[in-house]
Amino acid sequence: MKRIGFLSFGHWGNVEGSRTRTARDALLQGIELAVAAEELGVNGAFFRVHHFARQLASPFPLLAAVAARTSRIEMGTAVIDMRYENPLYMAEEAAATDLISEGRLQLGISRGSPEPARDGAAVFGHVPAEGENPAEMARRHAAVFRHAVTGAGVAEADPRYAGGATGLLPVQPNSPGLGERIWWGAGTRATAVWTAEQGMNLMSSTLLTEDTGVPFDELQAEQISMFRKAWADAGHGHEPRVSVSRSVLPLVDDEDRRYFGLSALRETRDQVGIIDGFIARFGKSYVGEPDVLAEQLAADSAVQAADTLLLTVPNQLGVDFNAKLLGNIARHIAPAIGWTPNTSG
Fold first, then answer.
1. Backbone angles phi, psi at 218, to 5 degrees
2. In tens digits, what is the pLDDT along the chain, a chain of 345 residues?
3. Looking at the DSSP assignment, which residues form a beta bridge with residue 35?
4. Which of 156, 229, 237, 305 has the fewest CB atoms within 10 Å, measured from its CB?
5. Is the full-model pTM beyond 0.85?
6. 76's torsion region: left (phi>0), alpha (psi -120 to 50) or beta?
């Protein structure tokens, strides 16, 4: 079954043309867009986490609010930078949010991306151990978080204050099943294999920090294939999920053409650049008439290989515009990749 969700970076700024001028605007509009998306039958509401920027940063209050206002739609992150996280406190927050949502939380985590702050995680109090680099610290935090979120014991009980209990105490609350709904944002084929070995779902973005010369969707489809093989080889007891992200902008009316007409001329091919010193391939944007985009997405090999398609939205254009955008995709484009509206949960 194919699922679609929106992915908001939560930008805000008091600039000309923005309908999201403050952090409060970004948060409240994120909730309202999730409500509107659920009414359309969209399957997921996902939010990017980015520190020291005018973007969404602390996701759990927002996710809990979305959970309280909705009943069917999944809510999640794409992704949380684990360099910054206290993994045990995060396990408490995640479990509480998942309980409010009745098991609809899908958490994307990763080692993070380039950021405005120099060594920002250290300012948050997280410094790599001796001989460890920041990416390895992020993976260590992720391992502690995933251990705790299963309900495993993590702290030695003091019988004087634990009702006579001994042994290791788990963090509370615990939400059964959440451990199988953790995703890793993988930027390479090798990281996708590692993700499968760890038993996490795969979240792949609109860029990969490697390039073999083939089109982006083919490289990403190869990444997904390697992930699925590694998952099968590991012998995990449940089926994994895989998501990919795309920028899909159907041009239906004059407003759409005013905002994105030029993008149809300059952003409809892959790009190659440098990120963190590595060659990276960026996937193209899908901009144009809905029937053309439907054919193009149906031919996208990575979209076909994934079960979930996350649609990046221009959140500073406001709830009404983005609800219209999602509605046009739901009606005219998503059925071409095998999607049907989620109206029953």
1. -70, -40
2. 799 999 999 999 999 999 999 999 999 999 999 999 999 999 999 999 999 999 999 999 999 999 999 999 999 999 999 999 999 999 999 999 999 999 999 999 999 888 899 999 999 999 999 999 999 999 999 999 999 999 999 999 999 999 999 999 999 999 999 999 999 999 999 999 999 999 999 999 888 888 888 999 999 999 999 999 999 999 999 999 999 999 999 999 999 999 998 876 667 777 777 766 667 777 889 999 999 999 999 999 999 999 999 999 999 999 999 999 999 999 999 999 999 999 876
3. none
4. 237
5. yes
6. beta
